[in-house]
Amino acid sequence: TNAHVVANAIDIRVRPHGSARRYAGKVRTYGPDVDSAIVEIEESVADNFWAAVADSPPVELAASLPALQETVRALGFPTGGRTICVTEGVVSRVDSIELTPPADSTLVIQIDAAINPGNSGGPVFDARGHIAGVAFCKDVRSTTDNIGYVIPAEVVRTFLDRCGKDSKAYTLSPSVPYRWHKLENQSLRAAHKVPDGVSGVLLTSVAPALNSAIRSSDVLTKIDGRPISDDGQISLRGNELIQHRYLLRNKSIGEKTVFTVFRGGEQVECPPVELMDLPPICPRWPDVDYLPEYVILGALALVPLAQGHHWYKECPPELK
To answer: Which residues are the active-site residues?
Structure first.
């Protein structure tokens, strides 16, 4: 399912299609960096749950991204009913979008099938009956129509790989370890002495952990041998382009990355490096990279005392 579906959840219930009974569940793995989570059926009702779905055929994750204009079907329980809902559409494009901060960008499949509140975490099937991805959001701006987003199967597969053997010790996706600037401006290219035959992006700052491989003012030309254009895009498949950050964000644990840069008038292939999550100064997710600042004691939720902007006017007289 999606991380935002189970975030801060106290009571989780799972109801199989065609059954009126709801089974207690719990969050086993929480991955807010890719908006994914694993829900496990409570041990006390697990046998009954699996007996209820014993006749359901297993499904598989798709081995590759769906083609453009391929028919897809989204399943879920959207607002407006209590039975399963199936909506059909086509793949509009494959792109990389920014998730809600503090999460970074991720690879997504854009579809025109209806996705509404309640579809989040539900499967989206391709034309072959495989799971193309997991529905997770839609564009709600008034200027757009029929834009829904799906987390692709390959991102889900990498998420499962990062969960570890016991599905509890989740490792966050690697961060992009540098800041960069497009090299489309001819004056900028001339200032950094980049010849016409070289394409890539200018690195403006680099995380200290990678100083042994890449440096500020390098021109990043390739990642794992895949050329980068002057606007930061790479070839996804055929004529489809996508931002190069996708190559870094979807790395598996232990998978090395090879950067090729233009430095000192020549192409330099840097030694392989293993990328990792680079925590920012500010904490991001409770129970992921910091402990929550509250304690639940019976029916009470105890939180730190804080002074709001108008605290003096709003607080009881005895506290003034």
So the answer is: 4, 35, 120
